[in-house]
Design brief:
Mean pLDDT: 78
Low-confidence stretches: 333-347
Shape: elongated
Order of helices and strands: HHHEEEEEHHEEEEEEEEEH
Strand order of the largest sheet: 1-10-13-12-11-14
Number of helices: 6
CATH class of the largest domain: Mainly Beta
Radius of gyration: 41 Å
Structural class: alpha+beta
Number of strands: 14
Largest sheet: 6 strands, antiparallel, barrel
């Protein structure tokens, strides 16, 4: 008989105690749960991601919200649009008027006077050139003095300078007249007037002042994501992205994107080389060219709407991902864009 059992038999009460069956069952369940958890963490795959908030914007800078400015100073005469109006390219938006109501008439009268002066100078020059040729011919024949020939030459040069001055004045007046045609501000392309930034009629505005905010039509959308500097080195152009748009119902599983619902596929277009003031990096994401489901219509996901994106990285065991998160390591990265191997490093 074992030594332990011989000594226990001296204690009748202790010897009569038996481990309850329920405790054995609970102990077996705990051991099985721990073993299952270890196997689960060791063999269940997990897709590493780096996520960040974002906002919907236009891919082409020319398609983003832009300001329409007044090209000349003037007084607001008439508005042709209001907030929310849809315009076509060339449609009038605003008409300005000069403080002088008779400016156009005076410019037309000035132009006629300048044209007459130019024509008179041209006719006088033509006559002077004929006189110069005749005087030169007489001078060579000895019938005219050198002084007459030189005076004729001086007169031709003087009239040429007058003609050039008249043409320059006419050009300046034409420029001024063309500027008056810019009192009518037109839409640069098809789009929507978001907001009128100038005042009511009779309000004076200066050249370069913003009169309206404009959103072009048919803009290709993109998402600006902001990624933490710890993970941005692993994000490269062409990396797949899972996007969740504001107001769009979705169920997102970061580590198992294949079972997520309501998210949309994207692709990294570019990564900014410098950080934002808050230390995060901007990542521009466009719609994946081979996406099975296109992004929601622009009426549901508008410009300026918020979004959240998960850049998909490597597939690793779930236990490794938990260990990485607890140690605050960057995601595992084994294959670069150029096919070079890279080892994860701790920060």
């Amino acid at each position: 008989m074992p030594f332990r059992e011989r000594h226990i038999r001296h204690f009748k009460t202790l010897d009569s105690i038996r481990v309850p069956r329920i405790m054995r069952v609970v102990a077996g369940m705990l051991v099985s749960a721990v073993l299952a958890l270890v196997l689960f963490l060791a063999f269940v795959p997990w897709v590493q991601t780096t996520s960040g908030p974002g906002v919907v914007t236009a891919l082409d800078p020319n398609d983003r919200v832009q300001e329409i400015n007044a090209l000349v100073s003037g007084r607001i005469d008439k508005w042709y649009v209001r907030d929310g109006s849809h315009v076509k390219a060339g449609d009038p938006i605003l008409r300005l008027a000069d403080n002088d109501p008779n400016l156009i008439e005076r410019l037309n009268a000035e132009q006629q006077q300048l044209v007459q002066q130019r024509d008179a100078a041209a006719a006088a020059l033509a006559t002077a050139e004929i006189d110069l040729r005749r005087t030169e011919s007489l001078f060579r024949e000895g019938l005219a003095s050198r002084r007459d020939f030189e005076q004729a030459s001086i007169r031709v040069d003087d009239l040429r300078a007058r003609l050039a001055s008249a043409e320059a004045a006419l050009t300046r007046q034409a420029v001024e007249a063309s500027r008056q045609s810019q009192f009518l501000i037109r839409a640069p392309r098809d789009g929507t007037i978001l907001r009128l930034d100038a005042g009511d009629t009779s309000t004076f505005i200066s050249a370069g002042q913003t009169v309206a905010t404009f959103q072009p039509d048919n803009a290709e959308r993109a998402v600006e994501l902001y990624i933490d500097g710890r993970d941005v080195a692993l994000v490269y152009p062409g990396a797949p992205v899972s996007l969740l748009f504001e107001g769009w119902p979705a169920v997102q599983f970061s580590g198992w994107p294949s079972i997520a619902r309501g998210t949309f596929e994207g692709e990294v277009i570019s990564v900014d080389p410098t950080a934002q003031p808050d230390g995060q990096f901007r990542v521009l994401v466009g719609q994946a060219p081979d996406a099975e489901i296109p992004w929601p219509d622009a009426s549901f996901v508008r410009f300026g709407a918020t979004a959240r994106g998960w850049v998909l990285l490597e597939t690793v065991p779930l236990g490794y991902e938990l260990w990485r998160q607890l140690n605050n390591f960057p995601p595992r990265y084994t294959q670069g864009v150029n096919g070079q191997q890279a080892e994860p490093s701790a920060r």
